[in-house]
Amino acid sequence: DAGITQSPRHKVTETGTPVTLRCHQTENHRYMYWYRQDPGHGLRLIHYSYGVKDTDKGEVSDGYSVSRSKTEDFLLTLESATSSQTSVYFCATRGVLRESNYGYTFGSGTRLTVV
Amino acid sequence: AQKITQTQPGMFVQEKEAVTLDCTYDTSDPSYGLFWYKQPSSGEMIFLIYQGSYDQQNATEGRYSLNFQKARKSANLVISASQLGDSAMYFCAMREGPRGNTPLVFGKGTRLSVIA
Q1: If 0-12 CB within 10 Å is exposed, 13-18 middle and 19+ buried, where does residue A42 land?
Q2: What pLDDT band is residue A98 in, cutting at 50, 70 and 90?
Q3: At a CB cut-off of 8 Å and minimum separation 6, what does B30 contact?
Q4: B110-115 and B10-14: which strand pairing?
Q5: Cα–Cα separations (whole angstroms), residue B101 to A6, A101, B76, B83
Q6: Which of A43, A88, A103 sits opposite B106 (nearest CB)?
Q7: Are the beta carbons of A41 and B108 separated by less than 8 Å?
Q8: How many CA atoms lie within 13 A of A36 on its CB side?
Q9: What is the mean pLDDT of residues B79-97?
Q10: Residues 72 to 101 of A: which have CB under 8 A from any B CB?
């Protein structure tokens, strides 16, 4: 009954190759977010979406692009992966603020290693 | 300027004792919400507690309470009667605006270790 599914869960890729991470939700939530987590930095926003085909940049968007062609899917693409993009990537969605978690649901994360 | 500041990279607490994790925030928006999340070693983000800027009382959820001092812009998490299972990373986060349309902004986190 997972509301958010991230795929893949783990990936090792070579420097310079393109990589796409997928976030799929079944909650029909309008807002979706991509964060990266690195030691000493917490979670930092990469890109977010406020509707189909509506996206905006976050704090650390350089080197990343996103697409949202359907409500349920939010794709994060690293056009040419670099070692500095080795990280854990979290997808999140926001629904109604008065839900038990005050609206925010997180995926399980994708651990990406760029060698 | 950082919007969320957590000044304690790591903390230790004895089992069954209470512990306070610090969080200060910076916003000029009168409407905002403050969150605390727990991240155990398994990696998932677990929602703990929420405080709205207009809430008159401090939020409480079981052993978790939020010490909200609006004038000081602080939102410290208090965990009472610590348990070994409380060992984890803890993140403070904020959303701004009345509709919460802006993304959550996170602090750098505090790693809590509970000692038997």
Answers
A1: buried
A2: low
A3: B53
A4: parallel
A5: 23, 16, 24, 35
A6: A43
A7: yes
A8: 21
A9: 96
A10: 88, 90, 92, 94, 97, 100-101
